[in-house]
Design a protein that fits this description.
The longest helix has about 35 residues. It contains 18 helices and two strands. Helix 1 crosses helix 7 and helix 12 crosses helix 14.
Length: about 425
């Protein structure tokens, strides 16, 4: 989806929010106590979300599971959209009031993130408005007209209907999230959508299950059910944040380890980070999944770690111009160092195979080899012609050394400014 598609998403959210606020202000708030309780819960859930975008990886990509909005806020918003009864009494709020309450709560909670420069928080608000509007429009008219009770009754059929509707809402949210990510990054839409759907199977399942339980609990016990059934999801959210913090720390450790070659003078300053950033951009272009991108990032950061085992450093750390046998020996040393460092085995395999002919390499190793060669060749000390001449030399090596598809993907990334977005590390 092009950038105009993202503006269409934002525009639709603004239009729905304006309609909801206008309708609510004109007709007044139905059941203000219920509306206030859900608004507070949505805001609390959004405020509990930590801004993981402040902890981007050195390669500049962020796994989908680290981008998830607040699960408690999502569950509270969807519960309000699907709430048909409270303490045995039918509710009277409609779809437009649902949109207004959720929009106001989500926007208020987004203010601290926006104040810190987190403009993406507005996109999360837009997604929340559109997904809640979808669920409310599908549920509220059926409930208020009485047709829903005629179709499902109050037993298992109602639960099944709610689960199906929540599944469709989760699909809607994944589509919107991928569209906004596509507009913001320029990455292919298909892999982004696939990663969003995979992430929905995790925390999304917990959100849907909690939402159904909260709808049924509030229908019987009233608003007192909200804190009771929100607690498990809040604990899940806390655990999720801890797991994400561990991932961020592990990524920072790998980045620090990769800088050892720079500090020791074996490679040029910023080389590992540039190769990692550009490799992940090429991996996105080729449609790699989030897990494959993580392996690619770690391998790219550590691709020169084998040079620490050399007695005589390679001039400027540029392995692209070395004889094939010497390059393979350094790669094998790097794989052994990576294994001893405790990185995942698949990362060590990529490091070990990066110097082999591309027909014997996995995709990640092909990418690392080509991007590493590009960064070496584009350096002024080796190739005064710069990036265009370096790309031309890579194309000449597609018979054995570099996979043609990887080279062309690299060319497309560079044409979009991928090289300019890579920030070199400061010398150690």
């Amino acid at each position: 989806m092009r950038p105009w598609g993202a503006w269409a998403v934002r525009g639709a959210a603004v239009a729905l929010a304006a309609a909801g606020l206008g309708h609510t202000l004109w007709h007044g708030v139905a059941e203000p106590g219920t509306a206030l309780a859900f608004a507070a819960l949505v805001a609390l859930g959004e405020l509990a979300r930590r801004d993981h975008h402040e902890h981007r990886a050195a390669a500049g990509h962020l796994p989908a599971e680290d981008r998830r909005p607040a699960p408690l806020g999502s569950a509270a918003a969807l519960t309000y959209a699907l709430l048909g009864e409270a303490a045995g009494h039918p509710t009277r709020h409609g779809a437009l009031q649902t949109v207004a309450v959720v929009f106001a709560a989500a926007l208020a909670a987004a203010v601290p993130y926006i104040a810190r420069g987190g403009g993406h928080a507005l996109d999360l608000v837009a997604r929340r408005v559109l997904t809640v509007a979808f669920a409310a429009v599908c549920f509220q008219p059926l409930h208020h007209s009485g047709r829903l009770e005629d179709l499902t009754g109050r037993g298992p059929c109602l639960v099944g209907f709610l689960l199906v509707l929540l599944g469709l809402t989760a699909l809607c949210d994944a589509v919107l999230a991928a569209a906004l990510a596509r507009a913001g990054t320029g990455w292919p839409y298909g892999p982004l959508l696939r990663d969003e759907l995979r992430a929905q199977l995790g925390i999304g399942s917990a959100i849907c299950a909690t939402c159904v339980v909260m709808v049924l609990g509030v229908a019987v016990a009233g608003l007192w059910a909200l804190p009771v059934f929100s607690l498990p999801l809040l604990l899940t959210q806390t655990s999720f944040h801890r797991i994400t913090a561990i991932r961020v720390t592990y990524r920072q450790t790998i980045t620090s380890l990769a800088r050892a070659t720079e500090i020791a003078g074996y490679t040029r300053p910023g080389h590992a980070r540039r190769v990692a950033a550009l490799s992940c951009a090429v991996g996105r272009e080729l449609g790699l999944s989030e897990r494959e991108l993580t392996v690619l990032e770690y391998a790219a950061l550590m691709h020169d770690i084998g040079q620490l085992s050399l007695v005589d450093p390679v001039p400027a750390g540029a392995t692209a111009e070395l004889p094939a046998a010497e390059a393979r020996r350094i790669a094998e040393l790097g794989g052994e160092v990576a294994r001893r460092a405790g990185v995942p085995a698949e990362v060590a395999v990529v490091v070990e195979l990066q110097a082999d002919p591309y027909r014997r390499q996995p995709v990640a190793a092909r990418i690392v080899r080509t991007v590493n060669a590009y960064d070496d060749l584009a350096a002024a000390i080796l190739h005064p012609g710069g990036s265009l001449a370096a790309l031309e030399q890579l194309r000449l090596g597609t018979g054995r050394d570099h996979h043609p598809e990887v080279v062309e993907s690299l060319a497309r990334v560079l044409a979009r400014g991928g090289r300019a977005r890579v920030v070199p590390a400061r010398p150690g």
